Amino acid sequence: MKSIVIVDDDATNIGLLKMLFELDGYNVFPCKSIEEAKAAATEGIDAFVIDCHLAQGMSGLALLQDIRKGQTAVDKNTITVMVSGDHRLEKEVMATGANYFFLKPYSPSELSNKLQTLLSEKEHSG
Q1: What pairs with residue 32 in β-bridges?
Q2: Which residue segment(s) compose the domain that 67 sits in?
Q3: For residue 126, what pLDDT is reported?
């Protein structure tokens, strides 16, 4: 079973995504901060879904950078999907190494389908 870390400070978003991904058969680790996400970022994690704007001025981009630099316990090539309500962040997010960017509001089923595609592609290429 694949494992996903969701990083979002909005409890409603976390609840919705957790339910959706669990129905899709994933283990889900909801986190409200970068610190929680880093603690959850263990070797068995297959993907992250990270909100760019977190509480207390924290940026999900900082977590993405740490993942890509190998500064977490997960493989630096772990699939990472970023979400934001600001379309201007898309170029920076992709340049930082995200696998995909979703602009809010997005369709949860579209996110789920994209994540399944990315995980399947990685499984077949690796």
Answers
A1: none
A2: 3-118
A3: 62
